[in-house]
Amino acid sequence: MAQKYLSNIKKIKFEGKKSKNPLAFKFYNPDEKINGKKMKDHLRFALAYWHSFRGEGGDPFGSATIDRPWEKFSDEIDKAKARMDAAFELFDILGMPYFCFHDRDIAPEGDTLAETNKNLDIIVKHVKEHMKTSKTKLLWDTANLFSHPRFMHGAATSPDADVFAYAAAQVKKALEVGKELGAENYVFWGGREGYETLLNNDMKLELDNLARFLHMACDYAKKIKFNAQFLIEPKPHEPTKHQYDFDSATVIGFLRSYNLMDKFKLNIEANHATLARHTFHHDLRVARINGVLGSIDANQGDLLLGWDTDQFPSNIYWTTLAMYEVIKNGGLGRGGLNFDAKVRRSSFEIEDLVYAHISGMDSFAKAYKVAYNLIKGGEIDKFVKDRYSSYSKGIGKSIVSGKENFESLEKYALSKGEPKKKSGRQELLETILNSYLFE
Ligand code: XLS
Ligand code: CA
Ligand code: CA
User: Fold this and answer.
1) Is 103 in the pocket of ligand 1 (CB under 6 A)?
2) End-to-end distance of the chain based on CA atoms, in angstroms?
3) Is 338's C-beta closer than 6 angstroms to any atom of ligand 1?
4) What is the pLDDT of residues 255-282, one digit of tens each?
5) What is the predicted pLDDT for the residue at 155?
6) Is the pLDDT at 124 greater than 80, yes or no?
7) For the chain, what is the mean pLDDT?
8) C or N: which end of the chain has fewer Cβ atoms within 10 Å?
């Protein structure tokens, strides 16, 4: 496509790990086959519109540092269109298979809901035009139910039923937009669905209402035949002190209690897992073993800072363990790896956006290969199998098959004596992982 805003940047190609060209992939070779499929089809990368095209580099201590040429228009609709034009240029440059957005990222909010919907329609039409010729598809869309002051007490969990209704109307529209643009998933992230203090909070009603809201969303999607996979994205806190979708385990408990388990999967974000004091690996594992690992927000947090830094993922150790879970999950299905990540405030040039995505894409491509080889090598699997082998014979097999009880086990323990100690071999296993990382 003709480049207007990013004309000085050429399409990024794979040059291999020896390349010193900063504008080339070192590990991400989209058409290379591995594990029976092309790399691009395993990884299903997406760009997050809010960070890459709405992020301005401001923080609580200082103003915006990022000043893009496509932001020059005074009319908000013209500006929204220009931004989208620039975005499709970047998708093309990076060979980005997917993108993701919130409704309010792509079109300005009007004075009324009707006006806002109209603005959205104009931009959706514009996106559709681009999608006719672009290879980039929509991984997911979502509704921003957290920025506007009306949502200060929550959206589906607001104490005000009028706000609940407003949020429902907004999600209804976002589902229609998702269908119109062929979104493969739809995400619910409840940034304000939580509380600041329990002193003013009816937790039971709020959770019941959240479930009611999600059921209504499922019903409406079914009605309009929007077949996207629905995803809930856990996060423990920020912006609220406590968010109801705290982590994978909490969300799974919620889905089970409210009969939603077969309708939702999880979108796991690395930085949210670490904010919940889990590893990224942990939250993916919990989702996977419960059959709800749906998609990933691919970023990383700075563990020395207590907030959601949303950095581009570059830590290969973490990305490898993430890909290990993804491969064990049999892939992500209709999900993908969305770079919910922002360039640092001081990385304000357009090139930085390109370097950032190259870094993220390479980090996950390398990780996929390492994780694949690690699984193929089989040492970890064999160790784990042996570690639990007592459950496939004798008394263990009998426990697992439900034949034992406390009385029979007491009898067994009395006759057997002290169990033998066995090493967990953590250090050895870490060395094995390193041998794959550095081969
Ligand atoms: C914020 C979340 C948000 C979701 C989509 O912390 O990561 O951006 O991914 O609403
Ligand atoms: Ca996210
Ligand atoms: Ca985040």
Assistant:
1) no
2) 39
3) no
4) 999 999 999 999 999 999 999 999 999 9
5) 98
6) yes
7) 98
8) C
Torsion angle, alpha carbons of 105, 107, 111, 117, to 10: -110
Q: What is the 233 CA–ligand 1 centroid distance (Å)? A: 8
Question: Which protein residues have their CB within 5 A of the ion that is ligand 2?
Answer: 269, 297, 340
CA 114–ligand 1 middle distance (angstroms): 25
Say whether pLDDT at 344 is over 90: yes
Cβ–ligand 1 distance for 235 under 6 Å, the answer: yes
Asked if residue 176 has its Cβ within 6 Å of ligand 1, the reply is: no
Q: Ligand 1 within 6 A of 192 CB?
A: no
Q: Which ligand is nearest to the CA of 302?
A: 3
Quick one: which ligand is closest to 300's CA? 3
pLDDT for the residue 3: 82
The predicted-structure confidence for 225-259, as pLDDT tens digits, reads as follows 999 999 999 999 999 999 999 999 999 999 999 99
Q: Is 1 a residue whose pLDDT tops 80? A: no
| Whether the predicted model's global pTM rises above the 0.90 cut | yes
